[in-house]
Design goal:
The complex is a heterotrimer of chains A (547), B (175) and C (357).
Chain A: H1 2-11, E1 25-28, H2 30-42, E2 47-55, E3 60-67, E4 75-82, E5 89-91, H3 100-111, E6 114-116, H4 152-156, E7 157-163, E8 169-175, E9 182-186, E10 198-204, E11 207-214, H5 222-226, H6 231-239, H7 246-261, H8 267-295, H9 299-320, E12 329-330, E13 333-334, H10 342-365, H11 368-374, E14 380-381, H12 382-388, H13 392-397, H14 404-407, E15 429-430, H15 432-457, E16 478-486, E17 489-497, E18 505-509, H16 511-517, H17 519-523, H18 528-538, H19 542-546
Parallel strand pairs in A: 1-4, 5-6
Antiparallel strand pairs in A: 2-3, 3-4, 7-8, 9-10, 10-11, 12-13, 14-15, 16-17, 17-18
Chain B: H1 2-27, E1 51-53, E2 61-62, H2 69-73, E3 79-87, E4 93-103, H3 112-116, E5 123-125, E6 139-141, E7 148-149, H4 158-174
Parallel strand pairs in B: 2-7
Antiparallel strand pairs in B: 1-5, 3-4, 4-6
Chain C: H1 5-19, H2 23-60, H3 76-86, H4 97-117, E1 119-121, E2 124-125, H5 132-140, H6 143-153, H7 157-188, H8 193-199, H9 205-208, H10 210-227, H11 239-242, H12 252-277, H13 290-297, H14 301-320, H15 328-356
Antiparallel strand pairs in C: 1-2
The chains are: A alpha+beta (547), B alpha+beta (175), C mainly alpha (357).
C-alpha cells in the first residue's frame, strides 16, 4: 500500500493522496489529468479498469480506476470534475488508455461531458437524435422521446473536439466509412451476434476491413434505475446484466454492499455463493463452447452444451428456486439454506461433466476443420488486451494474468488453493484456439474448485446462511468498488452513496463492452467466417455491454 | 509429401472420431421431456418460484395483515395492496386487507416479497403454466373472496412485535 | 414373382396399345403418365426426406424430434408443407423480378430433370440414354445457375456473398465428382446406366475393384455432399454468417422450391452413388453361392435401390450433423489440393486395375 501511495504521489506531485478510502485516490484539476495519467502509465499502471461519469449536483466529474498489471492488486483512483454545467468539457485520455474510447463515449452519452481530443464522440447507447443526457440528475429527456428514423449518415458521423494551438476549441466531424465502401449490417437481428449487437462491417469481398459496433439495442438504463431503488431491489437487476453469469454479478453487488455496510457474511454462505459462482461459470462456458461450435456450423455441439448446462440449472432450481436467474445471494448471505440434496447432486454432476468434457474434446477440439479454422487465426497480443481491458478468459489466453479471484481474492476464494488457467505466458499472443480451449480448461478447474469448496462446506454449521441485516440498508457516504471475476472477465460494481437508502450512483463495469471493442483489431483483414468465429470466441453477451 | 499424407490421414481419423461421438449420442436415451404427456408424473423442485400465492387454511383464512411491505419492496410495483378500515364489534378500529393484487405480467420472480413478509403470509407455488388469453387475466387477486385474517394464538403475539418495528420505519422513510 | 414393377408397366403399355390404335396417342399418354409418376415421386421423396432428416438430426442431438402431429410426428411435414404453400410471397422493390422468380424454378427444374435419367428398379426408368452418367452429372449442376440468379437478383448483400461462394464451391467440387465418376466409367466401360447395371449383376463395382472404387466413392460422396450445399459445406447458406445466404429474401413457396430441391438433390446424389458404386437396384450377390443369391433376389429391386439410397443419405446426415463448417479458403484447399490429386491418381489406378484384372 505504501508503495502505491508513493508511486501515485510521484505521478501527481503536489497532490494529496486521500487516506481512508478503499484505494489511494487523488483529486485533480481537468488540465492536470492527462499529465498524471501519462505518468501513471509510465510507472506501470497500464490497465484502465473503469471510467465512471458522475453528476455531483453542482459539477460533473469522472472517476478513473487504474491498475497495474505487473503488480496485481495495485489500484489507484483519479478523480476530476468540472463545474461548468452548461457545456462541460474534460480532456480525453483515449490516446493513453485505448479502452477509454468506449468509456468516454458512454460518459458523453449519459452526462453530456465532452472530451477534448476524443476522435469519435458519437452517442453509444442512445440514439443520435436523443435530446438531453439521461444520467444528469436534472434531466427530463424521457419526455421528449424521439420517433423519427435515423439515417446511416447520422450513425456514421463522428464529431470531434480538438483544441487548437491558440487554445481555442474547435468542433469538426469525420465520416466513419468512405463513400465507396461495401458496408454490411450484421445485426441487430442476426444469428451470430449473441443478442442484439449491431455490427457495421466494411467488406472487401470476403475480407473484413473495418468493424463498427453499434450498441444500445437492449439498453435498459439499469444504472439509472438503480438510483431510485433500494439496495436489495437492485439485486434482481444485476442478474439481468449478463444473464449467463447472473449469480456472479449478483454476488459482486452483494459483496460491495456488505463491504460498505460492514456486514460479516457467514462462512457457509460464502462457500455456497462461490460454488454457485463456479457452477455459473461452468454453465456459461458450456454455452460459450456450444455457441462457438454453432457459429462455426456445428449445431449438434450446441445442443450437447445445452444438455450439460441443464444439469446445472437443475442444481440451481433445487436449492435457489430459479434457473437462469437463481436469485440466491442476498445482502448478508443467502435467501435460504441449501437443499439437503445439494451436495449429492453437485458431486454427481461433477463426475458427469468430467466424462462429457472428454467427449466434447473428441467431438470438437480434435476436429481438423475446427482446428484448421481456429489455429493461427485471430491473434490478440497481451499489450493489446491490456490496452483494451479485455480480461477474463480472453486476456488469459493471451498470457495476461488477470484473474480477479487471484488478484483480489474475495469471499471463499481466499480459503482455497486453485490454479489460474493461463496460456501463452511466454509468447504473450493468443489465437482463437487459445481462447477456445481455455474455456474448456476453466470448466475443468472450476469443477476442481467446486470439489474443494464442497469439502469446506462440511465444516460449516447447517442453517447458518445469513447474517443479521437491518431491514433498511443504508451505506455510509462514500465510494465503494468491488471487483469480481465473472465468466467473461472482470465485472466491477461501483457504488457511490450519499447515506440514503438509495445509491447515489451505481456503475457496473462490463467486461463485454471491452470484448466487443476488441473485435475490430482482431478481425481486421480476416474473413467473414473468421469474424463470426472470433466474435464467438470472445463470448460476449450484449445485455451486459448495453446495461 | 509424407506430412501431406499424414495430415490427410490423421484428419480423416479425427473426423471419424467425431462421428463416433455423435453416433454414441444417437444410440443413447434422449433427454427431451415429453411435456404435456408427463404432466401428471412430472416433479417440480419444491423451491421453484412459479407464481406468488397466499396460502389459505381450511377455514378460508390467510395470514396477511395488509401491511404492504411486500408492495413497497417490490422492484417493479407488481403487488398492490388495498386496505379497509373496519370497526370490530368491541368498537376498536382495525385495518384489514381488502384486495391483494398480484400482476404476474410484470413479476420478475426475484423473491424479495416472500423474504420480507413479516407474517409469512405469501409463498411461491411451483405452477409454471402461466399462459392466458388476455393480459387482464394476469392480474390476480391472491386473497380468496370472503377470506379473513387468521386469528393468532395469544402467546405468539409478543414475538413478531420486534419484527414489526422495522417495517414501520420502512413505511415512514419511503414517503 | 410379381413384386417387380416392370410387369405392371408392361401391362399398362399393352393395355394402352390394345385399347387405342393411334401410336402417337399411346406414346403421349405414356409420357404424361411417366411425368406425373416422377412428379409424384419427387414430391413424396422430398416430404419423406424432410421428416427423415428432422428425426435423424434430433436423434444425433439427444432430442426426440417432431412428435406432435400424428404418431411420432410423421404428419408434421404435411402440416409444414401446407403452411408454406399458404404463406405470402413477399415481393421486393428494386430487384430484377424475372430473374428473382426464375431462380427457384431453375433450381427445381435442374433437380427434377435428373429424375428422368435415374433407374429406380429393374426396368423402371424415364429414359435410358447411352450417355446416362454424363447426363446425370450435367443436369444436376444446372441448379447452380438458379442459385446464382437468386443471389444476384435479390439485391441483398448477404445473398450476393452467398451466391458468389456457391459458385466457387460448386464449380470446384463438380470437378472431383466427375473425375470419380470417370473412374466408374473406365471400370464399367460404358456411360449407359443399363449397361453399368448389367455389369454389376454378379458383383457390385465397389467389390469388383475395392481399392480404387472405395477412393472414388469417398471422393464422390464428399463432392456430392458439397454440391448440395449441406453439412460442413453449407457456406452459401451459412446460417450463422449470412443468415440464409442466397435465399434470404425468399418467402412462401419460392423458398419452398429451394427447400424441396435441396432434399431432392440429397436423394439424387445418393441415388447416383448407389447406382454406380453399390449396384443400384441389383441385389447383393456373391458369385458362386446360388442359394444365397436366390434369397437375396426375393427382395424386389426397388427395395434394394431405396435401401442403398437411404444408407447414403444417412451417411450424409451423419456428416452434416457432426462437423463445423469449412471456411471458403479451406474448402478450396480441400478440393484443389487434396481431392483433385487423389481423384486424378485414382483414375490412373483404376486404369491399371482394369488392365491387370
Amino acid at each position: 500500500m505504501e508503495d502505491i501511495n508513493k508511486k501515485l504521489a510521484k505521478a501527481a506531485p503536489g497532490k494529496a493522496v486521500s487516506e481512508g478510502t478503499q484505494y489511494p485516490t487523488v483529486e485533480l484539476e481537468p488540465a492536470e489529468l492527462r499529465g498524471v495519467a501519462q505518468a501513471l502509465k509510465d510507472a506501470g499502471f497500464d490497465y484502465l479498469i473503469s471510467l465512471t461519469g458522475m453528476d455531483y449536483g453542482d459539477a460533473f466529474g469522472t472517476i478513473y480506476h487504474i491498475a497495474s498489471t505487473d503488480d496485481p492488486a495495485n489500484v489507484v483512483v483519479l478523480k476530476t470534475k468540472t463545474t461548468d454545467r452548461e457545456n462541460p468539457m474534460l480532456y480525453s485520455i483515449m490516446d493513453i488508455y485505448e479502452s477509454a474510447n468506449l468509456y468516454e463515449r458512454e460518459v458523453y452519452d449519459f452526462f453530456g461531458i465532452k472530451f477534448i481530443g476524443h476522435n469519435d464522440l458519437r452517442r453509444i447507447f442512445l440514439r443520435p437524435d436523443w435530446n438531453g443526457f439521461p444520467f444528469r440528475k436534472d434531466d427530463k429527456s424521457e419526455n421528449s422521446t424521439p420517433t423519427r428514423n435515423i439515417t446511416a449518415e447520422e450513425m456514421e458521423e463522428m464529431p470531434q473536439i480538438t483544441i487548437g494551438e491558440d487554445g481555442k476549441i474547435k468542433q469538426s466531424s469525420k465520416m466513419l466509412f468512405g463513400k465507396n465502401e461495401y458496408v454490411v449490417n450484421f445485426g441487430p437481428q442476426h444469428p451470430a451476434t449473441h443478442g442484439v449487437l449491431h455490427l457495421r462491417v466494411s467488406l472487401d469481398g470476403e475480407i473484413v476491413k473495418k468493424i463498427d459496433p453499434n450498441f444500445g439495442y437492449i439498453h435498459r438504463g439499469i444504472e439509472k434505475m438503480a438510483e431510485s431503488l433500494t439496495y436489495p431491489q437492485v439485486l434482481p437487476y444485476t442478474d439481468r446484466l449478463d444473464y449467463l453469469s447472473g449469480a456472479i454479478n449478483r454476488h459482486a453487488f452483494c459483496l460491495c454492499v456488505e463491504k460498505a455496510a460492514g456486514i460479516e457474511v457467514p462462512m457457509r454462505a460464502q462457500i455456497v455463493r462461490c460454488i454457485f459462482d463456479e457452477l455459473t461459470r461452468v454453465a456459461s462456458h458450456l454455452l460459450g463452447w456450444g455457441c462457438m461450435a454453432m457459429d462455426m456450423g456445428a449445431i449438434t455441439a450446441f445442443v450437447y452444451g445445452m444438455r450439460d448446462r441443464e444439469k446445472i440449472m437443475d442444481i440451481f432450481e433445487e436449492s435457489a428456486g430459479g434457473r437462469l436467474m437463481p436469485a440466491y445471494a442476498v445482502i448478508g448471505g443467502l435467501s435460504q439454506d441449501i437443499h439437503p440434496n445439494f451436495k449429492n447432486r453437485v458431486t454427481e454432476y461433477i463426475a458427469y461433466q468430467r466424462k462429457m468434457l472428454k467427449e466434447h474434446h473428441i467431438l470438437f477440439t480434435g476436429n481438423p476443420i475446427a482446428t484448421g479454422r481456429m489455429h493461427k487465426n485471430g491473434y490478440l497480443t497481451k499489450e493489446k488486451a491490456i490496452a483494451l481491458g479485455t480480461g477474463g478468459p480472453t486476456g488469459r489466453a493471451s498470457g495476461w494474468s488477470c484473474d480477479v479471484r487471484k488478484i483480489e481474492p474475495y469471499s471463499a476464494y481466499k480459503e482455497i488453493e486453485f490454479n489460474e488457467i493461463i496460456r501463452n505466458k511466454d509468447t504473450k499472443t493468443g489465437d482463437t484456439f487459445d481462447r477456445y480451449i481455455i474455456r474448456l480448461d476453466e470448466i475443468e478447474e472450476s469443477l476442481n474448485i467446486i470439489e474443494k469448496l464442497l469439502v469446506k462446506l462440511d465444516d460449516t454449521k447447517e442453517g447458518d446462511f445469513k447474517a443479521k441485516v437491518p431491514a433498511i440498508i443504508k451505506l455510509p457516504a462514500g465510494d465503494y468498488f468491488q471487483r469480481v471475476e465473472n465468466a467473461r472477465g472482470e465485472f466491477d460494481v461501483f457504488i457511490s452513496s450519499d447515506g440514503n437508502k438509495n445509491p447515489y450512483r451505481v456503475k457496473f463495469r462490463s467486461p463485454c463492452m471491452t470484448l466487443i471493442s476488441a473485435l475490430d483489431p482482431i478481425c481486421k483483414d480476416g474473413k467473414i467466417a473468421d469474424m463470426i468465429m472470433i466474435g464467438a470466441s470472445l463470448d460476449y453477451v450484449i445485455p451486459c455491454a448495453d446495461r | 509429401m509424407i506430412t501431406y499424407f499424414k495430415n490427410v490421414f490423421s484428419g480423416l481419423v479425427n473426423l471419424c472420431k467425431g462421428m463416433y461421438i455423435t453416433m454414441l449420442q444417437f444410440c443413447r436415451p434422449k433427454v427431451t421431456e415429453p411435456y404435456p404427456e408427463n404432466r401428471k408424473t412430472r416433479k417440480q423442485f419444491e423451491r421453484f418460484r412459479g407464481e406468488l400465492t397466499m396460502p389459505h387454511n381450511d377455514k378460508n383464512e390467510h395470514k396477511c395483515t395488509g401491511c404492504g411491505i411486500c408492495a413497497m419492496n417490490c422492484p417493479n410495483q407488481t403487488i398492490t395492496v388495498t386496505k379497509n378500515k373496519v370497526t370490530t364489534e368491541d368498537g376498536k378500529a382495525k385495518i384489514e386487507l381488502d384486495q391483494y393484487l398480484y400482476d404476474l405480467g410484470s413479476c420478475i420472480f426475484c423473491g424479495i416479497c416472500t423474504q420480507v413478509c413479516p407474517q409469512n403470509a405469501i409463498a411461491w407455488s411451483t405452477n409454471f403454466e402461466h399462459a392466458v388469453f388476455t393480459k387482464s387475466k394476469l392480474v390476480k387477486q391472491l386473497n380468496k373472496p370472503g377470506s379473513k385474517k387468521e386469528e393468532k394464538p395469544a402467546p405468539v403475539k409478543a414475538e413478531p412485535a420486534e419484527k414489526k418495528e422495522a417495517p414501520k420505519e420502512n413505511n415512514d422513510k419511503s414517503e | 414373382m410379381s413384386l417387380e414393377l416392370s410387369g405392371l408397366i408392361n401391362a399398362i403399355h399393352e393395355g394402352l396399345t390394345g385399347a387405342i390404335e393411334a401410336q402417337w396417342l399411346v406414346s403421349l399418354i405414356e409420357y404424361v403418365l411417366v411425368g406425373a409418376g416422377l412428379l409424384a415421386l419427387y414430391a413424396l421423396i422430398a416430404l419423406f426426406l424432410i421428416i427423415f432428416e428432422r428425426k435423424i438430426c434430433a436423434w444425433f442431438q439427444c432430442r426426440l424430434g417432431p412428435n406432435r402431429v400424428g404418431p411420432w410426428g410423421i404428419f408434421q411435414v404435411f402440416a409444414d408443407m401446407l403452411k408454406i404453400m399458404f404463406k405470402e410471397i413477399i415481393p421486393l422493390k428494386h430487384n430484377d423480378k424475372l430473374l428473382f422468380y426464375a431462380g427457384p424454378c431453375i433450381v427445381v427444374i435442374g433437380s427434377f430433370l435428373t429424375f428422368g435419367g435415374l433407374q429406380f428398379a429393374e426396368g423402371v426408368h424415364g429414359v435410358d440414354l447411352n450417355i446416362g452418367v454424363f447426363y446425370l452429372l450435367a443436369v444436376s449442376s444446372i441448379s447452380i445457375v438458379g442459385v446464382m440468379l437468386a443471389g444476384w437478383s435479390s439485391n441483398n448483400k448477404y445473398a450476393l456473398i452467398g451466391a458468389m461462394r456457391s459458385g466457387a464451391q460448386v464449380i470446384s467440387f463438380e470437378l472431383s465428382a466427375c473425375l470419380s465418376m470417370m473412374a466408374v466409367v473406365i471400370l464399367g466401360g460404358s456411360m449407359n446406366l443399363s449397361t453399368l447395371m448389367e455389369k454389376q449383376e454378379d458383383l457390385w463395382f465397389i467389390f469388383q475393384a475395392p481399392v480404387p472404387m472405395l477412393i472414388a466413392m469417398v471422393i464422390y460422396l464428399i463432392a456430392a455432399h458439397a454440391e448440395t450445399n449441406r453439412g460442413p459445406f453449407d457456406l452459401p447458406e451459412a446460417e450463422s454468417e449470412l443468415t440464409a445466404g442466397y435465399h434470404v429474401e425468399y418467402s412462401g413457396m419460392t423458398f419452398g422450391y429451394f427447400y424441396v430441391a435441396e432434399y431432392c438433390n440429397l436423394f439424387i446424389n445418393a441415388a447416383i452413388g448407389a447406382l454406380v458404386f453399390l449396384g443400384g437396384w441389383q441385389a447383393f450377390h456373391i458369385p458362386g453361392c446360388d442359394g444365397f443369391n436366390a434369397v437375396m433376389d426375393m427382395c424386389p429391386s426397388y427395395v434394394w435401390f431405396f435401401l442403398k439410397c437411404l444408407f447414403f443419405i444417412f451417411m450424409s446426415l451423419w456428416v452434416r450433423w457432426s462437423f463445423p463448417r469449412l471456411r471458403i479458403d479451406q474448402l478450396l484447399h480441400l478440393e484443389w489440393k487434396i481431392m483433385l490429386p487423389f481423384s486424378l491418381f485414382n483414375i490412373l489406378l483404376v486404369a491399371v486395375w482394369v488392365i491387370i484384372f
